[in-house]
Amino acid sequence: MQGVIETISGTFSGEVPVSKLVDLALGAGGTILRILITLVVAFILVKASNALIDRLITQRTSEDRRFMDDRKARTLRSLLKSLMRYVIYVFAGISILSELGVDTTSFLAGAGLAGIAIGFGAQNLVRDVINGFFILFEDQFAVGDYVTLRDVSGIVESIGLRTTSVRGFGGELYIVPNGQISQVTNHMGSAMRVMFSVTVDYSTDIDGAIEVLARDFEKARQEIADIVEGPTVLGVSALGESGVDLLIIAKARPMEQWHVERDLRKRVKEVFDREGIVIPYPHMEVLLGKGAPPDSGRQAAPGDGEKSETPRGGDSGPLSGGGPAIM
User: Fold this and answer.
1) Domains and CATH numbers, the chain
2) Which of 19, 53, 96, 159 is least surrounded by CB atoms within 10 angstroms?
3) Across the beta sheet with 184-186, what order do the strands follow?
4) 153 - beta bridge partners?
5) Rounded Cα–Cα distance for residues 10 and 296 (Å)
6) Measured between alpha carbons, how far is 10 from 26 in angstroms, rounded to an integer?
7) Eight-class DSSP state of 204
8) In this predicted model, what pLDDT tens digit does every residue of 293-319 receive, in sequence order?
């Protein structure tokens, strides 16, 4: 640029011939033309790469919706377009600098050394960005999914290239760097399992209890819209100290399994109450003998009364004494 200024000033002063100024103008015109061509080519490449990215992602999404939904497609499309645009602009900028007479070799060497220094100083940042890209590309989880990222569980609120935000069920917001996500548990399957057990008294007819539950569960399939499969009584799962455990299993829509379980437990209680099936529970029976003052304060002699505890329901058998029973 300094040479151009000196040539123009020399021409006006008569020291430089006009022909040299004409040659300089032609050379500058060629440089400007090449710069314009570079910008046009960069613009065309950006448009072409954007169209190619749109076509590839749209085609992949239409072939298999499980690969990515519309939201993930928009995110990945925007990310790839930005990367391609930056790459094209960098190469176009280097070409323009070369046309202007800048030594791009030393510039690239300096940029390479600076990049190496920055890379050593920002290894975690680079790892976060790379891992975030693969999380989006591989569709490991999405916004709104219930996930466990190592020791953090909750609903995914946002996914970025560097961090992922997870909202815990207590309202806590966890910001997890993508580079630290080494294990992902996605709880958003096609159907989530609902499994619980209910205890009936040992005196209960087990086959009869299973039959009345099966009849009510037929209605539950129609009345609870979030049930995908079941519910079904699998049978006896355990013989406890005070009753027999019956195992019930079903499948529900994702994030609705807790609601379905609560509804099924309520229905089981209502069915058992209606059919007279006893659910054992801890309770205590205190018997006072005849004529014994309730508040006499004296120690009861043998035979005056009894105190018995029934661990989890069931009959306590014949009881001595004729006083009232306090439950």
Assistant:
1) 2-121 (1.10.287.1260), 140-186 (2.30.30.60), 192-275 (3.30.70.100), 285-327 (no CATH)
2) 19
3) 173-177, 163-167, 152-159, 146-149, 184-186
4) 148
5) 129
6) 18
7) S
8) 555 444 444 444 444 444 444 444 433
